[in-house]
Design a protein that fits this description.
- The complex is a heterotetramer, with two copies of chain A (376 residues) and two copies of chain B (398 residues).
- With 376 residues, chain A is α+β, with helices and mostly antiparallel strands.
- Helix content of chain A is 50%, strand content 16%.
- Chain A has helices at residues 7-23, 26-34, 41-49, 69-80, 87-100, 104-115, 223-259, 271-299, 304-328, 339-350, 356-367, and strands at residues 121-124, 140-144, 147-158, 165-171, 177-183, 189-195, 201-213, 261-262, 265-266.
- In chain A, helix 7 runs antiparallel to helix 10 (339-350), helix 8 runs antiparallel to helix 9 (304-328) and helix 9 runs antiparallel to helix 10.
- Chain A starts with 6 loop residues before the first helix and ends in a 9-residue tail after the last helix.
- Chain B has 398 residues and is of the alpha+beta class.
- Chain B has three domains: 7-89, Acyl-CoA dehydrogenase/oxidase, N-terminal domain (Butyryl-Coa Dehydrogenase, subunit A, domain 1), CATH 1.10.540; 124-231, Butyryl-CoA Dehydrogenase, subunit A, domain 2 (Beta Barrel); 247-396, Butyryl-CoA Dehydrogenase, subunit A, domain 3.
- In chain B, 46% of the residues lie in helices and 14% in strands.
- Chain B is built from twelve helices and eight strands.
- In chain B, strands 1-4-5-8 form a four-stranded mixed β-sheet. In chain B, strands 2-3-7-6 form a four-stranded antiparallel β-sheet, with no helix packed on it.
- Chain B is globular, with a radius of gyration of 21 Å.
- The chains are: A alpha+beta (376), B alpha+beta (398).
- At the A-B interface, strand 6, strand 8, helix 9, helix 10 and helix 11 of A face helix 9, helix 10, helix 11 and helix 12 of B.
């Protein structure tokens, strides 16, 4: 059990922080939002130079992914700097799925290509009614002979508008969840693209009788177990991002309270302000503590603590964002300051991959002995 | 006292009037309202219709154009407007400057301004806050120097909602800086097209322009435009602030909004599943419903103790805290029920008459901007921290 | 819709307040607790002189119960004064059941006798596992010929140790709930008596093959509807008591904060204290508002608002009690001040006749169209 | 650094020792503990057993009798003691006066007091608070006037836990009232059987006597009994308070308590129904579990950054707030799960060795007194309001 990154990860983190501090100002962020560009080529290239494609992959592929700490350190910095670059959507999510895949007819060729930046893949996971649990997806993958036909509707598929390929989570005739690779422009795929409230590029996707080859199925054995593992990885990544945001919001807000004068003194002199700051600090610490706990458990194959981290984002995370706005007052209601951009991102994360209440229910299921993880 | 049967008849009369007069673009503006400030053009058109009927200012005394309703009728009117999804009238005219002129204006000022406030021919914005004077309003610095029959204004205002739509402003300006901060403030009226006045709209969290900064450079305003006494504008402002905090009926708007949300929660999807079947949604809706009813009946209980036109005093602080916090709770529950539907940014689809198609189920177009804008509710009109201190002061004075 | 008692009820309330202020000091309360007496004969006699037995009964019996305002005004004052006298347990609960009963072979004789103080009756309602909803009771009433046999276990039967008769809520062979009158010393009735944490006299009761006559059943028609109506009446009474307690705690606590000096000033000078007082006031107002709302709805036969009032006790009510203790500091942790006695009573009420979470679930059931009240 | 396998072996060693040494009356005292202060006689017997083993003071440096464990071992030890339901050692000896003497005592004082603190031959109480000096400790007035080699004490103390069981007291007394409040306070040791000293126990909310008032009338104490410098007792007290706030491992006690509660929630009744099947219980347990784990890992994270014997400084305030508020949350969930079982007052059945039968299922004998006593947790050792202010001060100093 440890409560910090290792020194190499810390160095990595410091480099990213320096990069974003120097080149990713809030002014820059605003321009990106205005121009509806989630990725800035100059920044993205520097991230690739840092070797970000190595993050989700294991040593088999000369990646760093056997220790998720590198990826999480990156996510924390993306959160801290409120950086829009789609590392999670275009590297970590598809990368983790490919890394977990045991269908070598796909992985042998695709992974090296993907790691070299030669393929952009978006992951079509969530559904409006069915939510985020792989085993509950309504999207169907019907096998017949050598072909599989996909039907369903996916929502909020991040970075989909620019993707060449999609990985779609669907259930087969036996209600067994799996992941399927397909071309983004395959017949029957329809995208409704949009910018999200937190500045990402996304699409809702309709899949109508999309026919793919049987070999496009990522998992041969224990598919649900692997999907749950990737899901936990995504939850951890979102958790790291929120931890980074919480840390930055603490700094910004404390600084503001020291310099904003009302009634002849800095507002930090008021007990109500002090106590709200204290509560923000405690909430930040809770998220940090749950993050390390979840990471440790994840490594041991126990994902309930990851649910706990994700659930707490919906309480402590949202509270930190809202408190930061409240303490800043009216100015935080405009895009003149970055505070609102953090709140929007935190709330979007709460609405993504299972809300607090859904995770509370999963935890209760585990506590009451009803819920078990899929066997490996 | 009006008995139950009368109230029910009144409710039917309101319903009928709304049904007869709800033009499509006005209804669309209501449906696309994401804050207390509805789309400008359409809400002003609606105000004109109400003014023609004599219903534009439910809380005004009859002699100035009020309909003479009691508190329960006013609540029913607000509730039915919200239920029909009419846009809420902008508060600046009828809830702010109107009561100020009724309470502190001269006969001439009343005759000059009140009719155009009612019809919306004039639209007023509020020039109170300044960059350095938010919660601490009394520290405002925007200067008005007397030159003969005129004041010359220099300085700036901020958080001036819809200043870019307004042709008139009521403002607090500093006419004396020698004494106690609250002294030397004057409440004054001015034209937005005055030379030297400049408006800069600010982009809000929801991607829209509601709030503005206003800059004054040698703006000349007649002394006759002062409301109340020179240097005594604080009395007018305090009176108005308590109106602003206590007068509005949050519950009347939120209960119908809850009914709509509940309807969506009870709708089965194509697999027969309802949001209301999820334990988390059940519990949130259940608690929210209690808070809403507690708010509604607190508003009714407090207001029913006031005579017509009375100012609620420190109780207004409680209504403001409770109203805004229940509103925020509603906005949080709604955005969670909306889920993925809340994520697409739909600024363009939100404009009245927009040809841009809505993304998602259509039930939650406003869920996210409403959530974001609701964060301002605990900041505006005196932060809820200030309100809690005021409320405590009243408790401790007993 | 009204938000106050009528003037006659206000006079009644004032009289009770005066009585308790003059004769029911906290010192007196402590003595009652120490001697394990929930009722003081001198006080009780004065309450009877006020005509308290008239409260639950309608005009048919020359009672005041057609307007529940009188009973609720009394409950509010019992709360305000933190008075132990068992008005709810020995007058309102059995009285409301008898008033609702349509078995004239019982009511004709018993009601006049009861109103004259000639019979003490305790109501055995709640069960450890099954809770408080009449239709869910596990206690069974099995009819055979002219006899009914009662079996089951009841908990926290208030004022049972001194009762001559019991009214037991049980379900018959058709799972239909009803109420049954029996002698407290009937064969098969076993009491485990105790003092409750809030100073009441109570017992857990085992009913083992208790045989009664068929005529001992209180309700012939619509028994569940009548039981639900009485249940709502009890909830309202508990709500009134909490409103009275909240009002008193506000006064006590505000006064304490003005006179307790720390750091050279009254603690009321601290913003944290002020804001907690403000929150107590808002919580008190919410309970008051829900109380009037519930009363109005109860009169119209809608009991969901009563559930809302009871649910809010578990949030706002408990918060007021806890805040009062917190603002008083250590001294509230002793029995030197009355604050703790109020908190204990509020908490006991939260644990009685359905906790907050159970009522939230009932409300959700109603909102989602699942739950309906029993037909009259 | 100790690796995982060592820790597992250590855990087994602790478990074994506890199993071998848990005498029935000690276990009963653990099971009947309703606050941080276990039944006196039995907990002191347990301290003696631990002292014989060398485990009575896990956080003390080895040279003074500590076992030399690292933070993870200490956490495991606390956790296993809680899991076995051993009574928690009274904090006054090992967590309070011990560290004070280790940090500020002379060699003679260490030799004289520490061994008997460890074994419990001496039991110490804490004389800090006064009727007028609670949160504002520095305003304490209990006077110590110098007469030759002695101080003469007059005044009173309150909230002196278990003073009626103690033979020793460490106290803060006023030796100079001319300067700043914090100056002129002296940390002094005294005997409880000193002439002129009187103890009055106070009845607690739970019906038990834990807290006492102590009155001093010309009580004579040797000057040699001062710890640290005369007039500089504030430094000692501050040092200790931070130990008191930061040192204890709330999570280590609460996680096993949660496990027991969960077991009860998962138990089916005779109709096959479990508390965990109720939506409200599910949600409360689920959230509580998150809060507990957050607490546990915050304690471990903070403490693992401290070297042996370090003082946690302002972070201690955070640990105190988080620990006590999660404890209170636990107590609230537990009392709700207990339901009717929490209502009987069972003061007598709670005494160790009592012949009085427990009422109810037996799972919740302590639920209500524990709930009530937990209300003190946000008051004692500096209210949580004070802690929040201290924490904010640290945040703002960055």
């Amino acid at each position: 059990m440890h409560y910090n990154y290792n020194s190499e990860q810390d160095l990595f983190r410091d480099s990213l922080r320096k990069l974003f501090k120097q080149q990713y100002s809030y002014e820059f962020f605003r321009e990106q939002i205005k121009s509806k560009q989630e990725s800035a080529p100059a920044i993205w290239q520097q991230l690739l130079d840092f070797g970000l494609f190595a993050l989700p992959f294991g040593s088999d592929f000369d990646g760093l992914g056997d220790d998720p700490g590198y990826a999480l350190a990156a996510m924390e910095e993306l959160g801290y700097g409120r950086v829009l670059e789609p590392v999670l959507a275009t590297i970590l999510m598809p990368g983790a799925l490919l890394n977990a895949a045991d269908n070598s007819s796909i992985t042998n060729g695709l992974i090296p290509q993907f790691m070299a930046g030669g393929s952009t893949i978006a992951v079509a996971w969530q559904e409006a009614a069915a939510g985020f649990k792989p085993e509950e997806m309504a999207t169907s993958a019907t096998a017949e002979g050598d072909e599989i036909t996909i039907n369903g509707e996916k929502v909020c598929v991040l970075s989909a508008p620019a993707a060449q390929q999609l990985i779609v989570i669907a259930v087969d005739q036996l209600q067994q969840a799996n992941a399927y690779l397909l071309d983004a422009d395959a017949p029957g795929v329809t995208l409704t693209a949009y910018q999200t409230v937190d500045g990402a590029s996304a699409a809702n996707i309709t899949l109508q009788n999309v026919v793919i080859n049987k070999s496009a199925q990522l998992f041969n054995s224990a598919p649900l177990h692997k999907l749950q593992s990737v899901l936990a990885y995504i939850h951890l990544a979102l958790g790291a991002e929120v931890v980074g945001m919480a840390e930055r919001l603490m700094e910004i807000t404390a600084e503001f309270c020291k310099t904003r004068f009302q009634f002849g003194q800095p507002i930090a002199a008021f007990q109500a302000v002090q106590h709200r700051l204290a509560d923000m600090q405690i909430a930040t610490q809770k998220l940090q503590s749950l993050f390390w706990f979840a990471l440790d458990a994840y490594a041991a194959g126990d994902y309930i603590p990851v649910n706990m981290l994700k659930a707490e984002i919906g309480a402590s995370g949202v509270a930190i964002g809202q408190s930061a706005v409240q303490l800043h007052g009216g100015i935080a209601m405009t895009d003149e300051l970055s505070v609102g951009a953090y709140l929007k991102r935190i709330l979007a994360i709460e609405l993504t991959m299972g809300q607090r209440e859904e995770h509370l229910e999963s935890i209760a299921g585990s506590l009451s002995g009803e819920l078990e993880q899929a066997p490996a | 006292m009006v008995n139950d049967i009368d109230l029910e008849a009144f409710r039917q009369e309101v319903k009928q009037f709304l049904a007869d007069n709800a033009r499509p673009e006005i209804l669309e503006a209501g449906r696309k309202s994401t804050s207390a400030f509805a789309p400008f053009k359409e809400v002003m058109a609606w105000q004109k219709i109400l003014a023609d009927k004599g219903w534009a200012a439910p809380s005004w005394p009859k002699e100035y154009g009020g309909p003479g309703w009691n508190i329960f009728q006013r609540y029913i009117f607000s509730e039915e407007c919200a239920r029909a999804r009419m846009p809420t009238l902008l508060p600046q005219n009828v809830q702010m400057i109107g009561p100020a002129i009724i309470g502190y204006g001269t006969a001439e000022q009343k005759a000059q301004y009140l009719p155009r406030i009612l019809t919306g021919e004039d639209f007023w914005c509020q020039g109170y806050s300044e960059p350095g004077a938010g919660s601490d309003l009394a520290s405002l610095k925007c200067k008005a120097e007397r030159e003969g029959d005129e004041f010359v204004l220099n300085g700036s205002k901020t958080w001036t909602t819809y200043a870019h739509h307004a042709n008139k402003m009521f403002a607090l300006v500093r006419t004396d800086s020698t004494g106690k901060l609250q002294r030397g403030i004057t409440f004054i009226l001015l034209d937005m097209d005055s030379p030297g006045l400049e408006v800069r709209p600010m982009l809000g969290l929801d991607g829209e322009y509601e709030q503005c900064e206003v800059f004054f450079t040698d703006v000349r305003v007649p002394v006759a435009n002062v409301i109340g006494q020179i240097d005594d504008g604080w009395s007018v402002a305090k009176y108005l602030l308590e109106f602003e905090r206590g007068g509005s009926a949050y519950g009347a708007a939120l209960v119908p909004a809850f009914e709509r949300l509940l309807q969506v929660c009870n709708k089965a999807d194509n697999r027969g599943r309802r949001a209301m079947d999820k334990p988390g949604v059940r519990r949130q809706m259940s608690d929210l419903y209690i808070q809403l009813r507690a708010l509604e009946h607190t508003e009714k209980a407090v207001n029913s103790k006031l005579s017509h036109g009375d100012n609620p005093g420190p109780t207004a602080s409680m209504l403001k805290i409770l109203g805004t916090e229940v509103m925020q709770l509603f906005s949080e529950v709604q955005v969670r029920v909306a889920g993925f539907d809340a994520l697409p940014l739909q600024t363009e689809a939100l404009h009245v008459g927009s040809p841009v198609a809505e993304i998602g189920s259509g039930d939650f177009l406003t869920a996210m901007p409403y959530y974001l804008n609701s964060r301002a509710a605990s900041i505006y009109a005196g932060t809820n921290e200030i309100q809690r201190s005021l409320l405590a002061k009243a408790i401790l004075a007993q």
